[in-house]
Amino acid sequence: xxxxSDATDAALVRGxxxxxxxxxxxxxxxxxxxxxxxxxxxxxxxxxxxxDVFQDVxxxxxxxxxxxxxxxxxxxxIAQLTRRRCLxxxxxxRDVPAEDVTEEGSTDLSEVEEAFDVREALxxxxxxxxxxxxxxxxxxxxxxxxxxxxxxxxxxIASRIARCLGRLREQLEGRNSAxxxxxx
Amino acid sequence: MTxxxxxxxxxxxxxxxxxxxxxxxxxxQELPAARRALxxxxxxxxxxxxxxxxxxxxxxxxxxxxxxxxxxxxLSEIRARLGES
Lengths: 184, 85
Description:
The complex is a heterodimer.
Chain A: H1 9-17, H2 21-42, H3 47-64, H4 74-94, H5 110-122, H6 127-138, H7 143-150, H8 157-178
Chain B: H1 7-16, H2 22-29, H3 31-47, H4 49-57, H5 59-65, H6 72-84
Helix pairs in contact in B: 3-4, 3-6, 4-5
């Protein structure tokens, strides 16, 4: 866990601008799945193109961070850089100008945004819950692998996952209420 | 709008943000050091004509001789910067 693990995006941007390597490491860690999901899932690019987009996006974030006016707007800025770079990759493959390519045909990116919100809420759970949910849902580990690696009885994995999902739901629904959700 | 999440929906959303390959993440985290190395090589090439000539003649070999292990992206950026300078 780094000094910046719980930092806001604005604090992270300030740290990166000050040349703090830990801040940069955290920024990459926090947004790597997001950039990856937009390129691989949203635009369904090939593995090679996803890797190019991924590295280019972080290079642009690093070299252009000073141009970000609103430090708290890091996420939409990264999303925009990624979408633009994905469209460039598609245009290059089709050998057409980038302006001629639209996001039509890409998966609904709002689902990636919602997934990011869920992931942020996950950060509010205990380390054990974060770990077990990540292993099961994003690393596709079996109950047996999880049990072996965490040294816990495999018969308890399903109930632990259910319990952690329940906590995640409370966390998300609590956030929504705090955001002023009205149930409409 | 209040969103309601059942277990199935949470599972779907959690699965969307899969980890990027570790090597990609580490390469991105090493960008600050890579950018510093790049700036250093380009400045040196501007000041040292023999070094610049060696880079132009055989970029990979000249960098390897200096102890750099550049990847494809790094090489293409150096080529672009040497072309500009």
